[in-house]
Amino acid sequence: MLQCGAMSSAWLRGLIACLMLEAVFLINGCSTPRPAPVIVHEGAYDVVVLEPLSREPPARHPVLLDQQVMETILHGMYTQDDERLLQRLLSGRMPPAAVFSDEQIATLSRSLVAALAQASPHQQVTFRLSVPQSRGDETTQGALYCAEPFLYFTFQQIHRGQPQPPHEKPGRQLPDPTSLGSRRLIFHLPAYAGDVTEKKSANSLTINYVRIQQWLASRSREDTATAGRVSPLPSTADGETSRLEGKDQVPAMGRTPSLNEPIIRKDLEIESLKEEIRRLQQQLGTQQRDVDRLKSLLDNAPQR
User: Fold this and answer.
1) What is the pLDDT of residue 127?
2) Could you report the per-residue pLDDT of 202-230, keeping only the tens digit for each?
3) Across residues 182-190, what is the average pLDDT?
4) Order of strands, edge to edge, in the sheet holding 97-98?
């Protein structure tokens, strides 16, 4: 009995020591101060800040990204009205709207790349852009963090950039803090055939930046190979002719974005129509199951 009592006493002392050690760890964890926000860039209408990461596990920071990769990603972000088929037939389809303008992309991409290069694993990048309007500033703000090979974008607010459709006017719905309404965030690169988004929601995008980086590198190699092909040296007359023709070709380069815009819209319309067809098929399948269930109930019901 004395031996049993000694063993129980030793077990209790060990348990108390473990509890005290765990309490010390908890106190030290709670007393660890959170890092203060760090301003990476602050302009008249835009700001980029490093803030504590609002998720677990930690991100994989710092990460070095080429600015061209970030510019390509920002260029591929659009908002698309999630219209029903009847609304589309009655009022026509609203074209997709770019989330960022070219001027915003030039500044924001540089700031985001710099922020990711100096972020710690426990920090995320937040950004806020304002566009002055006659009825007040329109704001786009969100957060970004990296966990290779993905960039995780979450938007708290996205400017509209175009008038509200009649079915979205105030008074018809609950307040929407994201200003998205019936719109959804989409990602589309017209020259890229694959899909670089792994997970989608109304206000967030998960983008595989490694695939975009590889795609841009392959395009650069192709352009270099094309430019490196041997061509005959032009004569003086040919050089003068090509110089004169070059003057006429400069305006043609400026027309390229306007030619790409209808392609982007058409591709987005096709994707939206595919989603609408899938949604209708799901609804028809649900209705068919309900009809089959009712038939089964009627067949099994006792006849009077």
Assistant:
1) 97
2) 899 999 999 999 999 998 888 887 776 65
3) 84
4) 97-98, 77-81, 183-187
Q: What is the pLDDT of residues 265-299, one digit of tens each?
A: 666 667 667 777 777 777 777 777 777 777 777 77
Q: Quick check: 148 and 63 in contact, CB under 8 A?
A: yes
pTM for this one? 0.63
* Mean of pLDDT over the chain: 75
Q: Where are the domains of the chain?
A: 38-160+176-217, 257-298
Q: What is the DSSP string of the chain?
A: -HHHHHHHHHHHHHHHHHHHHHHHHHHHHHHSPPPPPEEEEE-SSEEEEEEE--SSS---------HHHHHHHHHTEEEEE---HHHHHHH-PPPPEESS-HHHHHHHHHHHHHHHHH--TTEEEEEEEEE--TTS-EEEEEEEEEETTEEEEEEEE----SPPPGGGSTTSS---TTS-TTEEEEE--TT--S--EEEEETTEEEEEHHHHHHHHHHHHHHHHHHHTS--PPP-HHHHHHHHHHHHHHHHHHHTHHHHHHHHHHHHHHHHHHHHHHHHHHHHHHHHHHHHHHHHHHHHHSPP-
